[in-house]
Design a protein that fits this description.
heterodimer; A: 292 residues; Dihydrodipicolinate Reductase, domain 2; 2 domains; five-stranded mixed sheet; four-stranded mixed sheet; 9 strands; B: fumarase; two-stranded antiparallel sheet; 30% strand; globular; binds iron/sulfur cluster
Amino acid sequence: MAHLKESLLELIKRTSSEIPEDVHRAILRSLENEKKGSIAESTFKIIEQNIELAKQKTQPICQDTGSIIFYVEGPIGLDQLEFREIAEQAVRESTQKGHLRQNSVDSLTGVNDGTNVGKGFPTIHFHQSREKVTRVQLILKGGGCENVGAQYSLPNPKLKANRDLDGCRKVILDAVYQAQGKGCGPGILGVCIGGDRTTGYEFSKEQFLRKMEDRNSIEELNQLEQDICSTANKLGIGPMGFGGKTTLLGVKICAANRLPASFFVSISYMCWAFRRQGVSLNEDRTISSWLY
Amino acid sequence: MQSLTTPIDESSIRSLKVGDTVELTGIIFTGRDVVHKYLHEGGKLPPEVNLKNGVIYHCGPVVIRDENDQWKVTAAGPTTSIREEPYQWQIIRDFGIRAIIGKGGMGNRTLQACREYGCVYLHGVGGAAQVLAERIEKVRNVYMLEQFGSPEAIWEFDVIRFPAVVTMDSHGNSLHDEIQASSRAILDQNL
Ligand code: SF4
């Protein structure tokens, strides 16, 4: 694991200060699409300037550097305990260097010890693979957008949402409406249909690992993604809720098995400051390539 | 685009409408949860903190000491304002504040106070920490740093052309309410 810490430090730094290219392209397309001279257009211009400045200065795109969520896929034999120790060390150092804000508070005492290390901080999801390479992906997800996420249990009589795809559509659009601009829109939705209360949210967040241009291989879900995105963009909520054509930049949906008695739809909202990166590691744990 | 310079007089505030974009130049004071609660409970401000015709910014900035031992702001985006809803109306009334900068908008009591006392709510671009930090020319001072800690302290900044949108004006209008209502109507047609 010789070079693992350096590689993770690099990954954290880049995730915090650079928007992935696929998301950046989506933001630029939306900027073009907004009416010239509108508040939406000037808001996008500030967002775009901010993206450029953060990259140039290697400073956090947003001061809320968020929950730290690692996804690690590695071969059988990868030492998970050692990986966690090194990841925690990398998080501590990145916090000292200011790539991460002191952002983790003890829920009972209210104390922020300034390290970003504690129960659930950072979160690391390990997956085994038969391949030789290790891949590490990282998402930094801020609090403002996390607060507007929602989980619905179907049927929902108030929204007239039944246990079918149309019911899913209704509750997902309700979440967009409820969020208005409060999650620092334009947002990206990650959705899981099914699962339980825990796995539903977990899978919904994994959807953020998909590239913006990527199309769902399941046709019904592909259609639902397109439909929700275009319907949401008719609502006129716009960036920051100021009004405009771009309410969502994208929608990603997956389905998971559920119990016969439950039907959850779990929706995670990601703000425009979408921080996600990933690396493939060589056997000596140096970075061989960037994934986004 | 409208330019505002502190101290701001009432007539400049009354001329603003929701949807106007503004650029603010002059002095602003940060204040978030702890300061609002403190003032609401009758806490006293240091005499140098003059909020009359001034601006409060809902922000917990990241401020460091640079190589010359001067304060330097490295990130300074707005924080969610609605948490100050129980206190804001009273602070507008008692201190003669003309503008509040934050994000996400505020509720009815604040809107009423804006109308009654001549104040507006300016919405910053959430997440634009770097652009907004660049518009902060200088840290003039900091108050109650020991007592409240860095993010909650009252920071006094010199800002130049700080960009924001009027989303609650002094005539009882809220862009948040308008967009919520219009998006509801469109959603209903598309369900
Ligand atoms: S929601 Fe996102 S952009 Fe907004 S303050 Fe939080 S992390 Fe930053």
